Amino acid sequence: MTAAVLFENVSRHFGAVKAVDAVDLEIAAGEFFAMLGPSGSGKTTCLRLMAGFEQPTGGHIEIFGETAEGVPPYRRSVNTVFQDYALFPHLSILDNVAYGLMVKGIGKEERRKAAEDALAMVKLPGYGQRRPGQLSGGQRQRVALARALVNKPKVLLLDEPLGALDLKLREQMQEELKTLQKSLGITFVFVTHDQGEALSMADRIAVFNDGKIQQLGTPEDIYKRPQTRFVADFVGSSNVLSSATCARLGVPAKAASLRPEAIAIGTSWAEQLSLPGTVTARSFLGATNRVSVDCSGEKIIVASPAAMPVPDIGAEVQLAFSRNDLHLMEEA
Amino acid sequence: MSALVTPATILPNRPSLTGRLSDFLWKHPHVLLAILLGPPVLWLGIIYLGSLFALLLQSFFSIDDFSGLINYEFTFATYMQLLSDANFDIIVRTVTMAAVVTIFSALIAFPIAYYAARYAKGKWKAVFYLGIMLPLWSSYLVKIYAWKLILAKEGILTWAFTKLHLLWLLDGWLSLPIIGGNSLSVSYTGTFLVFVYVWMPFMILPIQAALERVPGNLIEASSDLGGTPQQTFRHVLFPLALPGIVAGSIFTFSLTLGDYIIPQIVGSSRLFIGQAVYAQQGTAGNIPLAAAFTVVPIVIMGLYLWMAKRMGAFDAL
Questions:
Q1: Residue A317 pLDDT class (50, 70, 90 cuts)
Q2: Residue of A52, A84, A100 with shortest CB distance to B225
Q3: A310 with A282: CB under 8 angstroms?
Q4: Which of A52, A82, A102 sits opposite B221 (nearest CB)?
Q5: pTM to 2 decimals?
Q6: Span B232-258, mean pLDDT?
Q7: A170 in helix, strand or coil?
Q8: How far is CA B66 from CA A289, B71, B82, B83, in A?
C-alpha cells in the first residue's frame, strides 16, 4: 500500500541551523500520526514540509506516491489546521469555511451547503453569519477544522491545534478529533509538545529532538520502552537509572528507565527488586502523590496512589518494583 | 536584620503638592482626561472648525462686479460661478489629476510597502524607513525646483533619452494632446510625475502599516486551501490592506486637490483648484469665489470617504 506521506532522508537547513536533519518517515493512509517533541525539535518544520510552506534542502518527499518537493501548497490535496487557527478576519464564518471551495471555482449555492454541513459536523450549526472575532477560542478551533475538512483533503495536518484551549476543552476536543478521524478515514498528522495528547490520540508517535526522530512507535512502545534517555525523560518523565544503580540491582546495563507509577513504597517481596532511599520532597497531585526519593545520590520520582500513606520528608524507605518494569537502554 | 527598612503595608500620603495632585488625579481620572484633551479640543473646535465655518459662510456671499466689494447677502450665485466653463474646467482638471496621481501612487507604493512589511528585516527595514522619510526632510520647494531641472528640455531626462537613442519615444509622448507639451517641465505629465514623487511616502507608510498587521499565516492559510497567489492577493491580502490604501489615497488625493505650488512651477499655465483659490483671494480679491473653490475639495473628499465606506473599505478595521 502507498504511504500517505513518505520522507526519504529529508533535510531542511536554515543556514547552519538543521531544523530537520535526514529524516526518514512513512505515514500510512488512514493513520492518526503524532509528531511529538519540544519546541525547536523540527516537528513543525516537518509539518510545513508536508504542507508545502517549506521546501526541503535535501531528500525526497512523497504524498500518496506523488513527488511533493517543488509543488506549491495550493496544488497539494493537503490541508492544515493552524496553531492560532489563521481564520480570515474580514470574512464571515461561512465564507471562511467555503474559502477552499470558492478558490476552486465551486458554485455559490453548492459551497454554501457544503460549508454549512461542515459547520454542523464540528457542532457549530448556524454560526455561519458571525465573524471570527465573535467566537471563543474553542469555536474558532472548530471553524479552522471545518475549513480544512470541507476540502476533503488526503492528509490533514494539525499544528498544535489544541494548544490554546483550556484543559477541559482540550480533553473534549481530543476525543472528538479521534472520533472524527476514525469516521472520516482521513490521514491525520498531528504536531504537539504535549505527550499526554500524543499518547491518548495517536496510532503511532514520532518523538523529535534536534531535527531528528528519536523514536517511532505505538504510544505503548514509546511510553513503556523508550530507546533513548531523551524519550524516557520527555515522554512521561521516566526515571533514568545510571549504570551504577543498575549494577546495585544486579542488572548489568548502561542505563535503564523506570516509570514513576511502577514503583511502590515500603513493601517488597521476593521476586521484586528493591532500593533503599530517603524521602526528599513530596507533593499532592490529586490522583497521586509525587514523592522524590534519594537513593545513594540517584534521585528517583515515585507516583504513589493517593490512597496509599505518604512517608514524611527524611523518612527511610524501600522502593520496590518488578524487573519487567525496568527497561534497559543501549544509550547511557 | 538587614539594613533595608521593612516597608509599611500602606505607604503614608506624600504631603507635597505633586503627591496630593497625583492622588487626586488617580481618584478622578475624568479630570485628568479633561486636562489632557481640553486644549486640543478647544483648538480644533474654535480655531479649526470656526475658520472652516467662516470659510463656508464666505462662499455664500458674492462680489459686486462693479465696485469689487463683498455683498453680504446670502446667495448661491458664487457657487453658480463655479459651473461656468472656465471654472468647471479647473475642477475637472484638478480632480482628474488627483485621481490619476492617487491610482499610480497606490500601484507603485504597494509592492514597496509589501516588501517592507513582509521581507525587510533589521538593517533593511531601517534602510527602507530612511529611504521613505529622507525626501521629507528636505524642502518641498527645493525638491520641486530640482524636478523642474530634471524635466526641462535641457535636463538630465532628455539627455538620458538621447543617449539611449530613445528621444523619439519622449518626443512622441510630448506630441500627444493634453498630456504632452513643449517639454516635460511644462506638461501635465511633468506635473503628474512630481505629484507622484512628492506624495509617495504618504501612500507607502499607511499601506505598509496595514500590511504589517496582516498575519503571515493568513497568506499561508489561503495558499493551503488552494488559493493561487493571484487569488490570495485578491481575496485576502488586498481586502486586508484596503484600509491602508484608502488612508494613503486620502493623503495623495486631498494633497493633490489642494496643492498650488507644484502645478505653478512644473506644468502648463492652466490652473488647478489651489492656484484658483490663490488667485481669487489674492490678485482678484474675490474672497467668496475663493471660498467656494475651497469647499469643492472638502465636498469631494466627503463623497470619496462615504463611497469608500459603502464599498466596505473599512470593514477589515
A1: confident
A2: A100
A3: yes
A4: A82
A5: 0.80
A6: 90
A7: helix
A8: 104, 11, 19, 21
This model of the complex carries an ipTM of: 0.83
- DSSP string computed for A214-269: EEEE-HHHHHHS-SSHHHHHHTT--EEE-HHHHHHTT---SEEEE-GGG-EES---
Residues B252 and B269: their CA atoms lie apart, in Å, by 22
**B223 and A CB contact within 8 Å:** yes
Confidence of residue A332 (pLDDT cuts 50, 70, 90): low
Q: How far apart are CA B292 and CA B312, in angstroms?
A: 31
Find the range with the poorest average confidence among A96-110, A178-192, B6-20: B6-20
- All CATH 2.40.50.100 domain ranges of chain A, comma separated, are 240-329
Which residues in chain B are closer than 8 Å to A102, comparing Cβ atoms? 235
Which residues, 6 or more positions from A52, have their beta carbon under 8 angstroms from its beta carbon? A68, A71, A72, A73, A75, A76, A78, B223, B224
For the ranges A43-52, A232-241, B301-310, which has the lowest average pLDDT? A232-241
Q: Regarding the domain delimited by A3-233, which CATH topology (the fold level of the hierarchy) does it fall under?
A: Rossmann fold (3.40.50)
User: In chain A, what residues touch B235 (CB-CB under 8 Å)?
Assistant: 88, 99, 102-103
Residue of higher predicted confidence among A60 and B13: A60
* pLDDT higher than threshold 70 for residue B1: no
Segment B287-299 mean pLDDT: 87
Biggest CA–CA distance in chain A, Å, is 75
Give the confidence band of B316 by pLDDT, cuts at 50, 70, 90: low
Query: What pLDDT shows up at residue B3?
Result: 59
Round to whole Å and give the CA distance between A63 and A45. 16
The string of DSSP codes covering chain B is: --SSPPPPSSPPPP-SHHHHHHHHHHH-HHHHHHHHHHHHHHIIIIIIIHHHHHHHHHHTSEE-TTT--EE-S--SHHHHHHTSHHHHHHHHHHHHHHHHHHHHHHHHHHHHHHHHHHT--THHHHHHHHHHHHHHHS-HHHHHHHHHHHHSTTSHHHHHHHHTT-HHHHHHHHTSTTT--SSGGGSHHHHHHHHHHHHHHHHHHHHHHHHHTS-HHHHHHHHHTT--HHHHIIIIIHHHHHHHHHHHHHHHHHHHHH--SHHHHSS-S---HHHHHHHHHTTS--HHHHHHHHHHHHHHHHHHHHHHHHTTTTTT-
Residues A135-192 have pLDDT tens digits of 988 889 889 999 999 999 999 999 988 877 788 888 888 888 888 888 888 999 999 9
Q: Which residues pair with A213 in a beta bridge?
A: A208
Is A88–B221 a contact, with Cβ atoms under 8 angstroms apart? yes
> In this predicted structure, what is the pLDDT of residue B235?
93
Put simply, the answer to whether A88 touches B217 (Cβ < 8 Å) is no
Distance from CA of A326 to the nearest CA of B (A): 45
- pLDDT at position A208 is 92
SS3 A23: strand
- According to CATH, where is 3.40.50.300 located in chain A? 3-233
Q: Which CATH code fits A240-329?
A: 2.40.50.100
Task: Answer yes or no: do B236 and A88 touch at CB < 8 A.
Answer: yes
CB-count burial class (<10 Å; 0-12, 13-18, 19+) for B186: buried
Q: Is B66 exposed, middle or buried (0-12, 13-18, 19+ CB in 10 A)?
A: exposed
